[in-house]
Amino acid sequence: MATSGEIVLDVEGLRMRYGTTDVLHGVTFGARQGEVLALLGPNGAGKTTTIEIMEGFRARSAGRVRVLGTDPAHGTEQWRARLGVVLQSWRDHGRWRVRELLAHLGTYYAPYSTDAIRRPWDTGELLEAVGLSEHADRKIRTLSGGQRRRLDVAIGLVGRPELLFLDEPTAGFDPEARHEFHGLVQRLADDRETTVLLTTHDLDEADKLADRILILAGGRIVADGPADDLARRTTAADEVRWTRDGRNFVTSTPGSTAFVRGLFHAYGEEISGLEVRRASLEDTYLELVRQGEAAAREAKAAQ
Ligand SMILES: Nc1ncnc2c1ncn2[C@@H]1O[C@H](COP(=O)(O)OP(=O)(O)OP(=O)(O)O)[C@@H](O)[C@H]1O
């Protein structure tokens, strides 16, 4: 959607082995500045591993990885200051107050301020952006789970990152907090500068936020594209329901628009109660994961 063209993430043939277990077999994908990518995949697929390698927190077994033009295995402090990381949860500093902690962490980013990107993010504005203004003077250990998660997000943003990694950012959010968080990511994406890579198990969230969806299954990226394009790649069909002469009909078709046109052409005014249910991202996701895992099993058996 909002891209300026510069390649921010470049991953090719990434492999990761823990002991004797290969988790990533050859992961390849890229991202351009301003894109929002959602990395989906079943539990244990290797999403966190992939993100940790890109963050420079984990050494890879093989493959090429460039993040903001740098190999994360050799990232400098200056490089790290351009990244934002939201981990599973910030457990330390329970006695600190929210505002104090953000102001304190912000000081680490001040030396990396540039004319183009003023660092850190002003504490008051950041609290407002993540919806924590009214809790700014509370001690961290007194925050609810959802408020703590907002703080995690604020910590990831305090250095005004060019690339933001969000690992399951809305786990534990209530619907309102989730809605507000989605607005925040969309605002970040709208500025055309921040690239976002998030992992989630919430397919509606991925559909809503991401320009591109990546599905990791069987150790590989088995799908990479906008949600609508992925739906077209699978056999998942749309469901069309209608009523004619008092009888209910239902059919599955991959081309619902053409089908409905034909239906009206044939029966016109006789048709009522028309409903079209598009193949959902969930249908597509389940189908692609099944195919990806089956291919990995076959490859293993063939070895
Ligand atoms: N430090 C480690 N040592 C050994 N195995 C590990 C280690 N970290 C992760 N694994 C294994 O690697 C696989 C991928 O784990 P990872 O956490 O990357 O998956 P994930 O896709 O993020 O899963 P989830 O959706 O459950 O968070 C899992 O089978 C996990 O048990």
Features:
binds adenosine-5'-triphosphate, globular, 35% helix, three-stranded antiparallel beta sheet, Rossmann fold, ABC_transporter-like_ATP-bd, antibiotic resistance, six-stranded mixed beta sheet, alpha/beta, 2 domains, 10 helices, AAA+_ATPase
Describe this structure in words.
- The chain is α/β, with parallel strands linked by helices and 303 residues long.
- Helices cover 35% and strands 27% of the residues.
- The strands form three sheets. Strands 5-6-7-3-8-9 form a six-stranded mixed β-sheet, with helices on both faces.
- α6 links the parallel β6 and β7 (195-199).
- α8 (227-233) crosses α10 (281-302).
- It starts with 6 loop residues before the first strand and ends with a helix.
- The mean pLDDT is 90.
- The site of adenosine-5'-triphosphate (ATP) has 10 residues, from α1.
Topology overview:
Layout: E1 7-18, E2 21-32, E3 36-40, H1 47-55, E4 62-67, H2 77-80, E5 83-86, H3 98-107, H4 123-129, H5 145-157, E6 163-167, H6 175-190, E7 195-199, H7 203-209, E8 212-217, E9 220-225, H8 227-233, E10 238-244, E11 247-253, H9 256-267, E12 272-277, H10 281-302
Parallel strand pairs: 3-7, 3-8, 5-6, 6-7
Antiparallel strand pairs: 1-2, 1-4, 8-9, 10-11, 10-12
Helix pairs in contact: 8-10
The chain binds adenosine-5'-triphosphate.
Adenosine-5'-triphosphate binds at residues 18, 23, 41, 43-49.
